Amino acid sequence: MSGPGADTCLTLRARSVARSPGAGEGEPVGMDVLPGEGAAGAARVTLEGLLSVVGAGVLELCAAPCGPGAAVAGVTVLDELEPGTGPGELVLAVGVDPESAVAADVVRRAGGTGAAAVVFGPGPSGRQPPPALRTVAEEAGVAVLLRTAWCPWARLVSVLRAGLASVGVPPDPRTAAVPPGDLNGLADAVAALVGGAVTIEDTESRVLAHSATEGDVDELRRLTILGRRVPRWRVEAMREDGFFRALWGAGDVLHRPAGGENPERLVVAVRAGGEVLGSIWVAAEGRPLAPDAADALRAAARSAAAHLLHHRTRGGHERLVGDAARALLEGRGPAGALAERAGLPVRGNCAVLAVCTGLDGSDGDGDARLHGLLALYCAAHRHRAVAVPLNGRRTLVVLGGLDADRRRAEEQAARLGRSLVEQVSAAFGADVRIGLGEVVAEPAELPESRRSAEDALRALLAPGESRTVARVDQMAERVALSRVRDALDGLPLPPRTPVARLTALDDGNGGTMVATLRAYLDHFGDVSAASRALGVHPNSLRYRLRRITEVSGLDLADPDARLLAHLQLRLLGGG
Questions:
Q1: Residue 561, phi-psi category: left (phi > 0), alpha (psi -120 to 50), beta (remainder)
Q2: How far apart are CA 536 and CA 502, in angstroms?
Q3: Beta-strand (E) ranges in 106-206?
Q4: Do the Cβ atoms of 456 and 436 come closer than 8 Å?
Q5: 426 Cβ partners below 8 Å, 6+ apart?
Q6: CATH class of the domain whose range is 47-167
Q7: What is the pLDDT of residues 482-494, one digit of tens each?
Q8: pLDDT for the residue 404
Q9: What is the average pLDDT value for the chain, to the nearest integer?
Q10: Rounded to whole angstroms, what are the CA distances from 33 to 2, 12, 253, 337, 367?
């Protein structure tokens, strides 16, 4: 609990800080490093043990001819120029298509060196490797795994190294009964050991879990738990005071004595394989912490690495669901498997809603609340839905399980869109627009529904548009104009077109030629209507038009010339 664990001016008297490279020079004051004994000897790591921590979120097991008990010694990246794979290694076959003949050669060579497994990236078709590759794996005695589409190679390397390090730590018998990934259970178990209140956080100071609280709760701890993250002002203060540099670099328990209204606190970073995974905070609750609290917290941090990694890659359900839905919308991977992982029906009518709010996206808590409300409102309408954030102002909502009749499915999506506009606007006090994507027959077609939803939303955001919810067919003209503008935007045109001449003249003397021509063309050559729009006398407008034709060479009697001029003016004005 980083916020509650420090005063406003938190700096550190570090008596013996074991710093990691790049930990920084700033040392927070007011907390001491409590030296302790190192970790016990590493345990034997098996493929089953590793996959129990870093399984479904990052890797899919395709073949395991030697069984799940095969020993795993390390991870290495395949390099044809430096073939140095050792026994028990996980070989990352970067750039090798698992459906190609080269993949089979890689597996055979890995078997010859005693490698434990070969990891391939997802193939271009998104399907499982062909049966022939499994046959080769059986012959070579090498496991074959697939990297999931939403876990890039760089992240996989760090995850595997952290997994190997965390699984290799002998289990602490005092927390061994906590199921993998049960962070709340871990927090309660640690609280019982240290005699205080426990909070487990990630590296962004978000609260992942906390122990049940029985005693008095200080105000900052209450705010942190209720907000599910340390208040931003507290995080900024600790960052400026160098606290985080000390925490991530200390390598041991930091202690802060009680002072004023702030109780005694301990904190330790949770790390594995050189990667920091989060932190565990302990606060006294009306009585001193247990005498061996630091030792218990130190042991808990070693055990917690596997739990935090499990939460990230397997137990982090929301992240997995969001990543699967994003991959589904981008057409990456097998649609059926992605839909199932995202909790959506693998068959039947579905659609995408593109939601835009007037929020500026500067508040991460507001973003999380928005996405949570979208999912909640969809569930209230009995829709299976996943909210996929694009940025601070836009979110895609994937709807599954719509009515089997297309027309009724479209009506369902429209009703939901109108309801979301009302409810989200009321909750946030912000302008909301929702583009309704076309209803499609199966999840594989959701990328097309997304495109139509975003086209409709873009049209709804055009200047002067008052509607808040619409489909593409209801915004056909605006969508068509947007596509024409996209096609023409950046298209090289001759530098001296009539509109270009008028623009240069206006820029030079602050004139009104461009505005006059646009008003005239917008009103289809109706001098009276154009003059009223400009607030000038019709004779003044006629004089301006004569002047425009003289200086620009524009022939207003030529339909093609008028069309080109109007398109250029639209591009200039963004209308």
A1: alpha
A2: 19
A3: 117-120, 143-147, 196-201
A4: yes
A5: none
A6: alpha beta
A7: 777 766 666 666 6
A8: 92
A9: 81
A10: 16, 9, 6, 48, 37
Per-residue pLDDT tens over the stretch 16-35: 333 333 333 333 444 566 65
Q: For residues 362 and 409, which has the higher predicted lDDT (pLDDT)? A: 409
| DSSP classification of residue 237 | H
148-207 residue pLDDT tens? 766 788 888 988 988 888 887 777 788 888 887 788 889 999 999 998 899 999 888 888
Which residues 6+ apart lie within 8 Å of 174 measured at CB?
Answer: 189, 193, 296, 299
Beta strands in 46-195 (DSSP E): 59-63, 74-77, 89-93, 117-120, 143-147
Topology, domain 318-487: Alpha-Beta Plaits (3.30.70)
pLDDT tens column, 385-409: 888 888 657 889 999 989 999 999 9
Looking at per-residue pLDDT, the higher value among 353 and 507 belongs to: 353
Domain ranges of the chain: 47-167, 172-315, 318-487, 498-573
- The 10s digit of each residue's pLDDT in 217-254 is 667 777 888 778 888 888 888 888 888 888 888 778 88
pTM beyond 0.85? no
- Nearest CA to 324 out of 386, 245, 376, 269 is that of 386
Q: Is the pLDDT of residue 255 over 80?
A: yes
Q: Which two tokens stand for residue 365?
A: 């808590």
Strand order in the sheet with 89-93: 59-63, 143-147, 117-120, 89-93, 74-77
pLDDT of res. 498? 85
Domain 498-573 fold is Arc Repressor Mutant, subunit A (1.10.10)
State the amino acid at position 158 in one-letter form. Answer: S
Answer for the pair 416, 422: CB distance below 8 angstroms, yes or no. no
Sign of the alpha-carbon dihedral angle for 207, 208, 211, 213: positive
Q: Which of 161, 171, 177 is nearest to 275 (CA)?
A: 161
Bridge partner list, 397: 353, 387
Tell me the two tokens of residue 220.
């900052």
Residue 374 has a pLDDT of: 77
All residues at 6 or more sequence positions from 176 whose CB lies less than 8 Å from its CB, including other chains: 303
d(CA 194, CA 293): 4
Give the residue among 435, 335, 339 at the shortest CA–CA distance from 394.
435
Q: Which CATH architecture has domain 172-315?
A: 2-Layer Sandwich (3.30)
Q: Name residue, tokens 């200086």.
A: 551
What is the spatial distance between Cα 269 and Cα 302, in angstroms, rounded to a whole number? 10
User: 10 Å Cβ neighbour count for 414?
Assistant: 18
Same fold, 172-315 and 318-487: no
How far is the C-alpha of 156 from the C-alpha of 85, rounded, in Å? 18
Q: Report how far residue 249's alpha carbon sits from residue 516's, in angstroms, rounded to the nearest whole number.
A: 66
How many Cα atoms are found within 13 Å in the side-chain-facing hemisphere of 194?
33
H or E element at residue 209: strand 207-210
- Report which of 89, 80, 81, 146 is spatially closest to residue 114, judged by C-alpha positions: 89
For residue 316, pLDDT over 80 is answered with no
End-to-end CA, the chain: 51
